[in-house]
Amino acid sequence: MKKKRKLSNRRKEKRRLFHILIILAGVFFLVKVLNEEFSFIKKPQLVYKNIPSENVKRYTPLIHNELMKVQLEEYTPLLAAVMQQESKGKGGDPMQSSESAGLPPNAITDPEQSIRQGVKHFQRAIQYGEKKNVDLPTIIQAYNMGLGYIDFVAENGGKHKEEFAKKYSYIQVQKNPTLYNCGGDKNNFRYPYCYGDFTYSTKVMSNLHKLNQPLAGKRH
């Protein structure tokens, strides 16, 4: 009887061990799958796979690499959406970042330099936006309107609204009405808010959704 009990106990132990191994294998497989699912944001080939513009698609690895240098690579899809809005990846200044460097429009003629400056401009906006505790749409709008827009929104609750962008634009227009006059075209949808594009943040976020890419980030 004792031998039979020992054999029975051994069989039970073996079964228990076998079940534990199956459970561990299942957990390992699940972790692997989840890791592949949620780590895509750091894989450039997946980050840009759905971008409609071939030019933007071509430049996205450069955007990703520049963002990695400043530990902001999770914003790669967003900066690709910015480029899509700015130029669709065309021209020598695809990020339209010349003015953020204090240069005339399109003064930058090297796409790599344009991307470096665009990332630098975006990094400044992110850092200043965090300091002022504004939301991500405000930071995106600041890429178009400058860091002064972050101050304006911070003084008005910290969350971007197109109405705020209009008000800020009009303030800048009044400072220099001959420069910011939409080229004299009163039929321009921006008129009389001719400083920047008050719909810029909305358009970039729309581009991001069209790219079918979620954005990893801590902004609220």
Task: Write a brief caption for the model.
Helices cover 60% and strands 0% of the residues. The protein is mostly helical.
How is this structure best described in words?
The protein is mainly alpha-helical and about 220 residues long. The chain folds into two domains: about 1-40; about 40-210, Lysozyme. It is about 60% helix and about 0% strand. It has nine helices and no strands. The chain has helices spanning about 1-40, 45, 55-70, 75-85, 110-130, 135-145, 150-155, 160-175, 200-210. Mean pLDDT is about 80; it is low at about 30-50 and about 215-220.
The CATH class of the largest domain turns out to be: Mainly Alpha
Q: What is the string of SSEs from the N terminus onward?
A: HHHHHHHHH
| Total beta strands | 0
User: What value does the average pLDDT take?
Assistant: 82
**What is the architecture of the largest domain at the second tier of CATH?**
Orthogonal Bundle
End-to-end Cα distance, whole Å, is 69 Å
Low-confidence stretches: 29-51, 214-220
Number of helices: 9
Reported by name, the CATH topology of the largest domain is Lysozyme
Proportion of residues in helical segments? 55-70%
The coarse overall form would be globular
* Domain unit count: 2
Radius of gyration based on Cα positions: 26 Å
Counting helices, strands and paired strands, the structural category is mainly alpha
Beta content = under 5%
Main sheet specs: none
